[in-house]
From TrEMBL:
One of its GO terms (cellular component) is cytoplasm. Its EC number is 3.5.2.7. The keyword Metal-binding applies. Residues 72-385 form the Amidohydrolase-related domain. InterPro entries: Amidohydro-rel, HutI, Metal-dep_hydrolase_composite, Metal_Hydrolase. GO terms for molecular function: imidazolonepropionase activity; metal ion binding. Pathway: Amino-acid degradation. One of its GO terms (biological process) is L-histidine catabolic process to glutamate and formamide. This is Imidazolonepropionase. Keywords: Histidine metabolism, Hydrolase, Iron, Metal-binding, Zinc. It is an enzyme of class 3 (hydrolase). It comes from Chryseobacterium potabilaquae. NCBIfam families: hutI.
Length: 410
């Protein structure tokens, strides 16, 4: 057993409910805290000196924290597209210069350009850049990262992406959660309509994904410019029959698809910038997590997900980065969550819950995201004497130490 501390403050998030609004009075903050670890899991949380006394006869190893540091459960980014080739800085510049989606696509930009760059990139190049992005996320305090395919869009390239993510898992201590997003867009070189392409995913891609155990989750982009409501619903029900968990890119520009997500029992409905008031209760009374992606709002100059309304209605609200080369190039979840809080009026407790146990729940990982006995010992520290400083500095206060399974990895 190992005792780590003392932490000036330990923000445990223990006892916070899975759904709905939270006040900061509900936050448990342990002063001069200690974390007792056994076998990669949290054995006990409490006052450092009291724990030291209590276990003094049990031959525990003491790992001292130097200086004043606050501790949190490590963060979870439940929505990213960080396996990609190329760069879309020109899309960003054109968008800001007032060009339309169509003009950008016609000049060689958009999702299709990332598909071409990802298809032509070598596996080595994709793996190296993916691992660099994972390391950046770890440096922010994120130790669990969901990663989507979706820039391959044919059998070979979708499998190539997922196999690279699997390889990356062998080279990082972070937990990677791969998701098949073959249904991102019908690729330009596919002969057939949307329904033919969705059928092709079901018959030619997903069985191999299953067989090779490359992903246990399936995502789809439901939008006027991508896949339509009815065809998507049929597709998702069939992926469920194949044994996949579901997540959906929903209501990004037009409403309606969050209802599909709830109806098919999706683990999460992500984006929701365009969700109408009438659909908020429908989401909020379900077990489908509503995931805000402020990085996409900031990258596109679009409005934010109505996180306040969703929380007030009782939804399980997570916050993720959506890091991708097009709509959300920033990748800094802490900055994004903090900015979302200022615009949507979210409490510190709501933001912290949204990037820890609530986003973990969206990934089906209920073993992490709180500092509580029995939980995975993934936690992080910041060199400061007040936990509020982390969101206050909007991402510019860097994490000091990162622990995974109770071991300091940074
Ligand atoms: O989550 N909405 C669709 N897909 C991504 C964008 C991907 C891209 O532009 O490359 C998103 O925003
Ligand atoms: Fe996305």
């Amino acid at each position: 057993m190992k005792l780590i501390g003392p932490f000036k403050q330990l923000v445990t998030l223990a006892n916070l409910p899975l759904r709905g609004k939270l006040s900061d009075e509900q936050l448990e903050v342990i002063l001069d805290g200690g974390i007792l670890i056994k076998g990669g899991k949290i054995q006990k949380i409490g006052n450092f000196n009291e724990l030291k006394l209590e276990y003094q006869n049990q031959n525990i190893e003491i790992e001292n924290i130097d200086g004043e540091q606050v501790g949190f459960p490590a963060f979870v980014d439940s929505h990213t597209h960080i396996c990609f080739g190329g760069n879309r800085a020109n899309d960003f510049a054109m968008r800001n210069a007032g060009k339309t989606y169509l003009e950008i696509a016609e000049s060689g930009g958009g999702i299709w350009s990332s598909v071409q760059h990802t298809r032509s990139a070598s596996e080595e190049e994709l793996l190296t850049t993916l691992l660099q992005r994972i390391d950046f996320l770890i440096s922010l305090g994120i130790t669990t990262v969901e990663i989507k395919s979706g820039y391959g869009l044919d059998v070979d390239n979708e499998l190539k992406m997922l196999r690279i993510i699997k390889k990356a898992q062998g080279q990082t201590r972070a937990t990677l959660v791969p998701t098949s997003l073959a249904a991102h867009l019908k690729p330009k070189d596919f002969k057939g309509d949307n329904q033919d392409y969705l059928h092709y995913i079901l018959t030619d891609i997903l069985p191999i994904v299953k067989q090779e155990n490359l992903a246990r989750r399936v995502d789809i982009f439901i939008e006027k410019s991508a896949f339509q409501i009815e065809e998507s619903k049929l597709f998702l029900l069939k992926t469920k029959d194949l044994g996949f968990e579901i997540t959906v890119h929903a209501d990004q520009f037009t409403p309606g698809s969050s209802r599909v997500a709830v109806e098919v029992g999706a683990k999460s409905a992500d984006h929701l910038e365009a969700t109408i008031d009438e659909d908020i209760d429908f989401i909020a009374t379900s077990n489908t997590v509503a995931t805000a992606l402020p990085g996409a709002s900031l990258g596109l100059g679009e409005k934010f997900t109505p996180a306040r309304k969703l929380l007030d209605a009782g939804a399980i609200v997570a916050i993720a980065s959506d890091w991708n080369p097009g709509s959300a190039p920033m990748g800094n979840l802490i900055t994004q969550a903090s900015i979302l809080a200022t615009y949507e009026k979210l409490t510190t407790a709501e933001v912290l819950a949204g990037i820890t146990f609530r986003s973990a729940y969206a990934l089906g990982l209920e073993d992490r995201g709180k500092l509580e006995a029995g939980y995975k010992a993934d936690f992080i520290t910041f060199k400061t004497n007040n936990f509020q400083n982390v969101l206050y500095h909007q991402g510019s206060l860097k994490a000091e130490n990162i622990y995974i399974d109770g071991n300091k990895i940074m």
